[in-house]
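Hey, quick one: can you model this chain's 3D structure?
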Amino acid sequence: MKTLQLVPALEQGGVERGVVEVNRALAGHGWENVVVSAGGRLAESIVADGGRHVALDVKSKNPLTYFSRALRLRRLLRKERPDVVCVHSRVPAWLFAFANRTLGIKWISFAHGANSISRYSRIMTAGDLVVTPSRFLADYLKSAYGTAEERIRVIPRAVEAAKFDVDNLDRDFIAAKRAEWRTDGRWVVMAVGRITQLKGYDVLIRAVAALRSQSPVPRSQSPKLVLVGESEALRKNVEEDLRRLAAELGLGDDIVFAGNQQKVAECLSIADVVVSANTRKPEAFGRSMAEALVMGRPVVAAAFGGALDIVEDGVNGALVDPRGADLARGFADALARVRGMKLGDLRAAALEKFSFEKMISRTIAVYEELQAANMV
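Sure thing. Here's the predicted structure for all 376 residues.
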């Protein structure tokens, strides 16, 4: 069987890492998997793991180049003749919809987020099958676009147990980052993800500042915030604004802008708590939250969207009302609660819930279902 994945780029992010992981699994099953993207740091992983990467600009929103890029994609599809195409974002979905008009290739739209309701976003419900990572997102698409339940498949994202295992980590990398970030003796609050306005990092910075001011512990043990991720080249102003806010609040050495990091498990091992501070747009799943739990780290998150499938308030972390009048105070209080919790075996429970083997078997079953329909 031959699959073709369309993803805007392969730089960073949960969706991109998911594409890399599925590629590795498909190659292990003896399938031919082709990943088409505008390129990026993760592209070499596709090749190293047994897949193929084809560089094609399926990321740009420039309408002037839309038709030429769609025609290049059509030529590629004719050459590759995949059994199933999997589309992971709106721009490549629109390009594929045009390129596929005379080809009739069966395709799956992987809807990874609760995008604003519009004709532009509707394309993510246009696949022969629609895959979502959470029940929340499935219900959202049904409500927003009338997507039929029988066309939807819910496949929660997963975490590779061996990769996110404290016994398999790069100890030298961890020691180097602890020294670089000056985390020894500190209570480390971490967030993982691109630096964008939607991530709520401004709220998190204010929350850590509030927590520091109310914390009775010595300065050396006070909270330290580590933001793992970077802003895209055209949105550097977001990070600049966050740095200014941190300076205004006097955080100084209490915050680290760690940039993009390939060794996410090692980074998470340094954290004491992981936070998803997005309160503006629900996470469809929240990959970093699941990974944190597998690493045995509690999670603080807004109580909406995919977080409700992951975080149990008072059990493996704390939830914050995203409609609260003072969100920074809400997150500060949640962080204080988590710091005082007695937690059980977070890893065992998370591995049972977010099994990589289950995700792969369900994904392959959907591919085979569509392939079988294509042969009828």
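One thing worth noting: The two ends are 16 Å apart (CA to CA).
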